[in-house]
Amino acid sequence: MTPAGRVLERAGMRVLVSPDHVSTSRLAAQRLSDRINAAVAERGRAVIGLATGSTPEKIYAQFVEWHRECRLSFRDVTSYNLDEYYPISPLDPRSYRSYMHRNLFFHVDIAPDRAHVFDGTVPEKFAPAHAAEFERWIAADGGLDVQLLGIGRNGHIAFNEPSDISDAEALRLPARLVELHPVTRATASADFGGLDRVIPRALTLGTAAILAARSIVIVATGFSKADVVARALEGPMTAKLPASLLQSVADNVTWVLDEAAASGLG
Ligand code: F6R
To answer: Which residue in the list 83, 135, 258, 259 is annotated as catalytic?
Structure first.
């Protein structure tokens, strides 16, 4: 915990608040690396779920720095990324596979065949089978020791987008091919050079696999997330705001926020 940080609790979930993006990223990196080291100490390996986007970039930079200082190893780590655009080549710089390569995989000692990202090149008729096999691999690896999440401005986690399905259904969504929500597409438009160029579909892990993780660290920074963070933490659990579904596994969830993202909390 950073000296300047605060600890809150909302809906039974732990909420750590740090002054800014840098201290928040460091705190999240510390919690994740503690989980990795604990799992490796307990059973010789760790299985982790990873996210992309702007929020985790500094977390991965911290991992790389600790790795260079020989304070963190990924030798015994297996990773599964939350999502990937579809269709997309892994070589496309906008793919999440290349994001992970640039920000983490290339710089640390993770085994390439244990760093899993959905394959955005599978033929469409095999996409459901590929999504299902991704979940089976996680289960066969013993489940996720820790899942890193960001939160979309519309409250999505991974690419589980807001919807009108029942809450019971929303809690057990499988890995699958999805259509991106208009807010998600608008947010991605800068990366793609225009809204009409955003790839409108993605393969995503479902809520079922995410909520089954033994621990979940969800990170948000900046004023643009303040409103959605407050609704996820203090509002009702609803499929209309997928991050609120984390309340169903409250004991396993830690939110790591900067003061700006926490500024909407009552
Ligand atoms: C990315 C992912 C998304 C992001 C979310 C926040 O793998 O699953 O749910 O975590 O869109 O993105 P940023 O961090 O860019 O605000």
So the answer is: 83
